[in-house]
Amino acid sequence: MSLLFGCKNNYSKLTEIELNRYDDCTGDDLEFLGHCFPNIKILSLGHLDVDDNDLFHLFDKLQYLEELKLTFMSSIEVSDSL
């Protein structure tokens, strides 16, 4: 729990994060991300194997999200400003 509060207190102003993993990211990781880094403006997601509902919950928490970058298995990058 101290890690959670440490991240939230020290890195809450972080505005850009990139997640590019295959199987290592879980719904709990996305929950942690949304809770500790609510000010993310640019989010890059690549090759994630997570439940769609977990992603929707993350997007709900990221009120300031302006840009979402998705990288699919074919390595084509899609970028869209919100």
Molecular structure report:
The protein has 82 residues and is α/β, with parallel strands linked by helices. The chain has one domain (2-81). Helix content is 37%, strand content 24%. It contains 3 helices and 4 strands. The chain has a 4-stranded mixed sheet with strand order 1-2-3-4, with no helix packed on it. Helix 3 (52-61) links the parallel strand 2 and strand 3. Helix 2 packs parallel to helix 3 (52-61). The protein is globular, with a radius of gyration of 13 Å. The termini are far apart. The mean pLDDT is 80.
Tags for this entry?
single chain, 82 residues, alpha/beta, 4-stranded mixed beta sheet
Oligomer: single chain
Q: What is the ordering of alpha helices and beta strands?
A: HEHEHEE
Structural class assignment = alpha/beta
The total strand number stands at 4
Q: Uncertain segments of ≥5 residues (pLDDT<50)? A: none
Report strand %.
15-25%
Radius of gyration: 13 Å
Compute the number of helices: 3
Strand order of the largest sheet: 1-2-3-4
